[in-house]
Write a structure and sequence with these properties.
The structure is a homodimer of 68-residue chains. The first copy, chain A, is an alpha+beta fold and 68 residues long. In chain A, 32% of the residues lie in helices and 34% in strands. A 4-stranded antiparallel β-sheet of chain A has the order 2-3-1-4, covered by helices on one side. In chain A, a hairpin with a 4-residue loop joins strand 2 (30-36) and strand 3 (41-46). The mean pLDDT of chain A is 95. Chains A, B: Residues 2-67 form the HMA domain. Chains A, B: It comes from Vogesella margarita.
């Protein structure tokens, strides 16, 4: 298992967090996503096959900004 | 110009609305998107070339539900 921590800007409520979760869950290999709204932190657990670029793109395509 | 009105569930704040707007704006042919959060109404203006299925998919992929 691989864990990736990203900082994501633009999430302001549970609906936003849900949006990011669903977008990431649709990327092949992702097994779990956790969002800490206050910290802007998104934790993505995957089986090692998920490409970091694909994960970042999924968040950007959902309308949020990966800032770290 | 073609205008499509969709009812979208799960948007609860301006960040959600922004997410839906950006997801739709990335679909080829889309020229303008307006979101009425309270009414759950999303208005999409496009040049006639945008496929309705692609518009619905963009919203679903961003983590929101098209319910009408």
């Amino acid at each position: 298992m691989t864990n990736l921590i990203l900082t994501v800007d633009g999430m302001t409520c549970g609906g936003c967090a849900n949006s990011v979760k669903k977008a990431l869950a649709s990327v092949a290999g992702v097994t779990e996503v956790e969002v800490d709204l206050a910290a802007k932190r998104v934790s993505v657990q995957h089986d090692g096959s998920a490409d970091e670029g694909a994960l970042r793109s999924a968040i950007e395509n959902a309308g949020f900004d990966v800032i770290g």
